[in-house]
Amino acid sequence: MATDAIEAVQPDLTDMIRVAVPERSVRHDLRAVSIVWRRELIRFRTDRLRAITSLVQPILFLFVLGTGLSRLASRGMPPGVDFKTFIYPGVLAMSVLFTAIFSAASIVWDREFGFLREMLVAPVRRWAIVVGKCLGGATVATFQGIIFLALAGVAGVPYNPLLLLTLVGELLLLSFTLTAFGVMMAARIKQIQAFMALTQLFVLPLFFLSGALYPLNGLPAWLTVLTRIDPLSYIVDPMRHAVFSHLTVNARALTSLSPGITWDGWLVPTALSVALVAVMGLAMLTIAIAEFRKTE
Amino acid sequence: MTPAVSVSALTKRYGEIEAVRGIDFEVAAGETFGFLGPNGAGKSTTIKILCTLADPTSGTARVAGHDVVRERDTVRRNIGLVFQDTTLDSYLTGEQNLRFHADLYGVPKAAFAPRLRQVLEMVGLWERRGGVVATYSGGMQRRLEIARGLLHAPRVLFLDEPTVGLDPQTRVSIWDYINELKKREDITIFLTTHYMDEAENCDRIAIIDHGKIVALDTPEALKASIGKDRVQISTADDQAAIRSLAGDFGLDAAVHEGLVTFSVESGEHFVPKLFGSMAIPIRSVSVSRPSLDDVFMSYTGKTIRDAEATIGDRNRRMATRFGRSMGRR
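^ Those are the sequences you sent over. The predicted structure of the assembly is below.
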């Protein structure tokens, strides 16, 4: 232990490097956002296993469930539209679901391993840390979604640049909102086991009620209500809308497969749908920041 | 000159438990100041308040001239921290951990590279900077934390039990680094410890027990305040020797560890007198100065190990009640 100190070149004693930590400024806060964000990327890059394992589930849904059910489902499908194409937008949303929430779980880990404290005692605003974390989670999850997006062709979704761009934008929004949700929970839930259990409790119902696997029209009343409550519905629908507007299908097929979300018969515009998700994301971010501002 | 730390009538309550019960002290700039006490005595709570991680229930505390509640950011810019538990990201390399810290503290970009090298060389980790922290030994991680705590050139460095959980050899080497640091950097060090031998390294020590400061002085003065040296003699007839000590010198002696043991002021002057007057043959003699252990015992009525045994229980109960939030926030 002591030997490597002796071997190291000792810096000049008289030449202590003066470091003046500047007054806190917005620029400084943005630098903090940037480093917290970059840390998420570094960790994602070194954790290849996570990138691979989180692709397993969407691939199973798309290819195993999608292929297995396609014969059965084809009766309800208009000719020329594959069932896999239909569920692709929903499964794409799923591909970012776990990654986004697990990115937020790293706050719980950071607390467990003390690194959170290193961040919380720094002379930066708490919002910078929370925003950095949410942006980091959103970036990592979107990247995960882009990998899955590469499989679009296999599901019969065209590689149209405008479509891809739209989908990436929607994935980014979804990932950000999900990470904000996770960070908000992580502010309160201090044990990783509890966090994981709660995640399980939320994630599958969110997915199944989102209309990822079935159209949102003609459902029984109870299910109609539940699907309208599920925030994920409001991003799966615009994603499906984007995909179907780039397919050559007749108008009847379009209304039966991508009917849009209705509130008591009123069709919710896509823009409002997307805006709703954005507002939810920002609201949860605000709550998360308020939670992390508290001191003992 | 403004004191590096000044605390007045500070208290901290967690529900029913009063962790800190009204403490006052000042630490001068450039001083190495130690908080000595058993686990659960209120050391870590005090450090948390000084580091702006917890708000005091009442009283005030100023660090580097700034109030820890009202001028939180200014205080944070001026302090460096090394906690008991590691706060490194073990997935990042040593250098990445320090870069993260530099960005978070707004260390000017031009100053970062030379300062990085300086602090890493100081703790002997320059060669290992590219290694992932998970591959570092416990001692290396602690040294990296010290380097990180110094990176932004704080005016006050807080070391909360800097050597806890390390093997004795590593503990000694950590202290070598801290002593080296005192020589090189213009810095005040505030540390907590429950190791008596480590407290000896401090310029001044505050002994804290049950949330109160029971004594505060230099280690030498504290030991001198007890006054008496411990003398142990081995004789041909212990009972006769005890009678003789009582009769001739008015000393209250007893047999401890098979030796006749008694306390006396300036033992080295007493021993020649003893040889001159006592008829019973003396086979061996040893004189020992009071240790901080004796100091702790004389102020609190127990040894630090006794204190740990009882307070340890209370602490564990507290830890269960408050969950991890207490220790980790």
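Chain A touches chain B through 47 residues (CB under 8 Å). Residues 29-293 of chain A form one domain.

Shout if you want it in another format.
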